[in-house]
Specification:
Elements (H helix, E strand, L loop, with lengths): L7 H54 L6 H11 L5 H11 L2 H6 L26 H10 L1 H13 L22 H22 L3 H16 L7 H23 L5 H12 L7 H18 L8 H4 L5 H15 L6 H21 L1 H5 L2 H6 L3 H31 L33 E4 L3 E5 L21 H6 L3 E5 L5
Antiparallel strand pairs: 1-2, 2-3
Helix pairs in contact: 1-13, 3-6, 3-7, 6-8, 7-8, 7-9, 8-9, 8-10, 9-17, 10-17, 11-13, 14-17
Amino acid sequence: MKPAIRTKSMKRSSNRGCLFYGGGFFVGLPLLLLAIGLLVITGQERASKRKLIERIDKIVAQGLPVDDSTMLSFTNSLTSKEDTKEWLAVLGELTSDGYVKSAKGIPLLDPLAEEERVVPAPGQAWGYEKVTRDFISNWNDLRSKVLKLSLKQLEPGAKPVRFITEFNAVNTLLPQTQNVRSAAQLLQLNGRVEVYDRNSPKTRLSIEALLGCSRTIAGEPILVSQLVQSSIEGMGIDVLRTAVENDVLNEKDLLVLLPRILDGINIRPQWKFSLQGERALMLPAFRHPELLQRSDAIRWLPGRSADALHYLDFMDQILAVPDGDFDEFKSELLKLEQNFHRDFDGNMLQKYDSVMTMAAIPAAASIGDAFIRDAMQRRLAAVCIGVRLYEKRVGKMPASLDDLKSLELGKLSLEAGVLLPLGKKPFGYRVEDSHTSVWGFDSSQDSSTPAEPPGTDDGSYEAQRNRLWLWALEHKKKE
């Protein structure tokens, strides 16, 4: 049998075939792998979507919100529109040109007001007294309306005011929330003047009104609203501190205020439902990333269910953290954040599936600190009220905070073990020659009560912050 003879044309044809099949292999294989990858990703997305739907259904079954419509229903269940019209009218006056212009240069109302305009402690010279009193007198009707509406919030069964009528996921606007703060500033200014006048009943009403004013937005399940609420409560504590330091409040008014202060010595339940509300505002963005207008890099990503599941996992862990103990609460939140960032940085697959989660999760530890500080300020205030009550009943300052447990206060308790700050060390206490110092600390800066009172005299930002944590109760002057 003769061997086959390969002609030049046959060789060229064979080479072209090799090139064709070789090119097809090198082009087709990547396309095949890409197709397989797309099928895998599509399959994973379908599986994740089913799990996500199940998770969301469970949240809805608990009566909790997951989107704009359920957020509106949830908020309406927590609030009442009984006084909405009256509050909107008041807030309208507070934002009017006439009010805003007249508030220029008035302490507490104008952030640019000179330091010397601030209402001083009783008995001190007050160079801008007439200007401030004239302002309060000119707006007395408005102040009276704010006072009345705020005090109404303290009545048994009263619900927070309904301001929000429309939600737009993460872009929901809260104009009235900030305006309520303006109402509180007017109450705070009036309270400072009442302290200066040593008017115990009116000072007490101003403090109660500030606590009530903060409750007007307590039903808004949004972190911003809850932080504003804490800020307004802080205004009430500010007036109370000045009044207690200067011995303005009589025993009767101190006893009225004590249970109102003790009512907030634990982390408020708003901690959880504000996170539940934040979750509902954020979830739609996982389907429609364009809602995240603040992040151009993320808003063009396709919505992915796996990312939403990671977000829900993290939020569930935050919501499950026990809040009965300050130290455990702070430690667990910090640990959760650290674990999440460690996993995100070290696992490429998790990083890919958690891009939006990384942008969406709240700064849990920092927010937790805000709620701890709020409760700690209340505890410090309650202790200082107790010190004044002891002085009025016994005729001298207590030798230590342990002496407060001897006060007969019915069902109320001022035992040092009940009113511990973060770190489980009692608040600082020292009887000086002219005053008694009681001090705490900022939980975001320290972990337990310092041995010495915080510095408040150098005019620095730190000194101003420390002023919140040092109460200097003046002693009665010997006649």
